[in-house]
Design a protein that fits this description.
28% of the residues lie in helices and 25% in strands. The protein is α/β, with parallel strands linked by helices. The strands form 2 sheets. A 3-stranded mixed β-sheet has the order 1-2-3. A 3-stranded mixed β-sheet has the order 4-5-6. Strand 4, helix 3 and strand 5 form a beta-alpha-beta unit.
Amino acid sequence: MKVSKVMNKVMVIEDDVSLKKAAEIMKKKKIGCLVFSQNNKILGIVTERDVLENADKLNKNVSKITSKKIITIDCNDNLEDAAEIMARNKIKRLPVVSKNELVGIITASDLVAHVDGFEI
């Protein structure tokens, strides 16, 4: 099964907001992460874990705490590819791109929910 069949909409923030503001957005939208982007370039992912690990730095901007190494997957790749990338890089969320543009996100929970779509 293709990643595009399972991916979710992704919430993007383009302003370098505080971690507190990012947490408020996640709470309001009932989501576990935000993608930080500027000029259509993914600069980082802010997750619930980032909020917890940086609870004493809630006034810092997300650009100061997001990972600089952004790993993505193409929307036409298979779920097995997504699972392998997540396992190899020890990540739970993977931005999905098409022609280098962000089109969605796939999570470890999505993979578990669609394990029947894996080709073995």
